[in-house]
Design goal:
Blueprint (H helix, E strand, L loop, with lengths): L9 H12 L4 E10 L2 E8 L4 E8 L5 H9 L6 E7 L4 H9 L3 E4 L4 E5 L2 E5 L21 H12 L7 H8 L3 H13 L3 E3 L4 E3 L2 H12 L7 E4 L4 H15 L4 E3 H5 L11 E5 L4 H8 L2 E2 L6 E5 L10 E3 L2 E3 L2 H8 L6 H13 L2
Parallel strand pairs: 3-4, 4-5, 12-14
Antiparallel strand pairs: 1-2, 2-3, 5-6, 6-7, 8-9, 10-13, 10-14, 11-12, 15-16
Length: 345
């Protein structure tokens, strides 16, 4: 829950005042009065023109906070601004798009109005600890991951919490936590019919960034075979020994969107099958120059909604996106192509 500052927020007030008084065309800046959720200030320009600023001071602010603020009627002749210790990039984007100024305590700001333009970014301002609760995007959050994957199987679907919890056999509280997190960040919306993902691209970008902070353990190998020959051998591995392997990265992504050429095969495989696969494929473990990368399956969420495409087992478009975003070269291009063709279609 966002807490409105009902006490005099001296630090927030000062950070706004200092920004305006540094401008050469500002003659005077003063606070007229405090309000229930901030303050009102008058700004006098050097030509004598005076306008009002209506400031909302908030201890914590989320994108959903700004959306609610935008919905408020504002009959006053003035400019609205947001003042908070920390303002995320997503919140800043929404503010700018809707003409609401913002100021944080590190000096980052944006303001456009009455021939004044302020913009300062890049000042380090760590997220408050309250924002660092266990994220639903962490690799270790298996249940949250399954919930998200179900949502992204069809981003146009509207879900009831109870239906989603029953389908995934998890508690309704866990589902509520994930959906609440998405709504708070303005990535999902709650309607009379249920919940729906409204900004799939933003969700996946944020997810992939957190997903990539901790490098996934992998085994690196070299093979004299070309990617196509290796992939044929993987099909043989399934037929001859019953061992499953799942293509990901570029080798999996081209099955959905053939936009890049590749010379490295990325595979998911059960840990207990890896040694037999090594012997069958005739590959050699190396420290560098690998053209075969095997990820041991930590849990089945990585292969949820996998598909068989032209005889090859391939992870879901969602997993392709997450994995490709971590690859150097044209990984982002691969991820974006799969996103547009298979996920947000």
């Amino acid at each position: 829950m966002v807490i409105l500052m009902k006490l005099y927020d001296r630090k927030g007030l000062e950070c706004v005042k200092n920004k305006f008084l540094k401008l050469p065309n500002i003659q005077k800046y003063e606070v007229d009065r405090r309000t229930e959720d901030g303050f009102i200030a008058s700004v006098e320009m050097d030509d004598g023109f005076v306008f009002k600023i209506y400031a909302y001071s908030m201890q914590q602010v989320y994108p959903s906070t700004i959306l609610r603020l935008i919905e408020r009627k504002n009959n006053d002749q003035g400019v609205r601004i947001l003042v908070s210790p920390y303002i995320s990039d997503r919140t800043a984007q929404i503010c700018e798009k809707n003409g609401i100024g913002y100021f944080d305590y590190a000096g980052n700001c944006w303001f456009a109005g009455h021939s004044i333009y302020l913009s300062e970014r890049g000042n380090k301002n760590p997220q408050p600890k309250q924002y660092n609760a266990v994220s639903v995007f962490e690799r270790s959050s298996v249940v949250s991951s399954l919930i998200l994957r179900e949502l992204f199987a069809d981003v146009n679907k509207i879900w009831r919490l109870k239906h989603l919890s029953q389908k995934l056999d998890c508690s309704i509280g866990q589902v509520s936590k994930v959906m609440g997190f998405l709504v708070k960040n303005a990535w999902a919306v709650k309607t009379a019919e249920g919940y729906a993902v409204s900004e799939p691209g933003f969700v996946l970008k944020e997810w992939s960034q957190i997903y990539g902070k901790k490098e996934m353990f992998s085994y690196l190998f070299y093979s004299l075979d070309s990617p196509s020959v290796l992939e044929a051998k993987l099909r043989g591995l399934k037929l001859d020994m019953g061992i499953d392997s799942y293509l990901t990265g570029f080798s999996g992504g081209v099955r959905y969107a053939p936009v890049v050429r590749y010379n490295k095969v990325h595979i998911y495989m059960a840990p207990e099958d890896i040694q037999e696969a090594i012997d069958y494929l005739g590959i050699k473990e190396v420290n560098s120059g690998a053209n075969v990368v095997i990820f041991p399956l930590e849990n089945d969420s990585y292969i949820k909604d996998c598909r068989v495409i032209a005889g090859d087992m391939v992870v879901s478009p969602l997993q392709i996106y997450l994995d490709s975003r971590q690859l150097k070269g044209r990984g982002e291009e691969m991820a974006e192509a799969v996103l547009q063709k298979e996920i947000v279609r």
